[in-house]
Amino acid sequence: MNRQIRRVVFMGSKRLGYLILQEMFRHHPDRLAGAITLDDREDTRSYFQQIQAFAHTQKIPLFIAENKQHTREIIYRLKPDMGFVAGWYWLLDHELLQFVPHGFWGIHNSLLPRYRGSAPLVWAIINGETEVGFSIFKFTPGMDDGPIWAQEKLAISPDEYVGDILHRLEQKTLEVFQTKYPRVFEHEISAVEQDHRQATYCAQRRPEDGRIDWRRPAREIYNFIRAQSEPYPGAFTLLREKKLTIWKARLFEFPYFGTPGQVARITKDGVWVICGDQRALILTDISFDGSRTAPQQIIQSIKIRFP
Hints:
single chain, alpha/beta, Rossmann fold, 3 domains, seven-stranded mixed sheet, elongated
């Protein structure tokens, strides 16, 4: 398509969306037709106020979408040639995708076509992946199956937590975006079709999905914990019928015989809990009953067995 890209719209939220919006403005302020965001202030990861303040300072038309239909109305009003999406949670239907001549492009935190769908990074860590990444791709009516504009891999250590990985992915995404985005306007970017035969998919996750099954092997539970740590709600177990969230833990290097979920040892360094493969996890950072503390402050008896 030879039509010039004169009007670009930003759609997004959260920290990455905020940083992408800044880059879009820095490179081509005259072509930024407007920004669309969500009022997500109930989310601890929200950057709503920062996005609002930046748009106000730079005189960028800002629209706060209330729902899918409102989003459609805003886009029809703005008539963009292209849209860039970072941190958006409502699907864009086929009619809307067709309305924008150069389409919508967005960031997905996986090496597409693997881990299409929801919470791809969380699922990748749960599955014990040692390499993750991100893809910038074109939106289609399908689930994350559009052509890829850019993709970068990132090696991760088996003891790295999701918050640290997200930070590194964010920095790498910005580096790539800073290089690629200006070239879009010169039509110097070509997209590559995905190999759909290699696709895998991720289901949506809810906070209650974070409950730990102590019958699983220690390494699997450890991955489960580090995949859902901050900035996410956290993996949890129950103590006296209340949620005990585990933010940090480490693997005990020797076999430890006992019943899965059994508290086996309590020291100043943490609390040992038996897992399903007769190994133990050492809990080192938890929240319980509204307070974040060392686990030995709450778990004070080896008679405790987590369900």
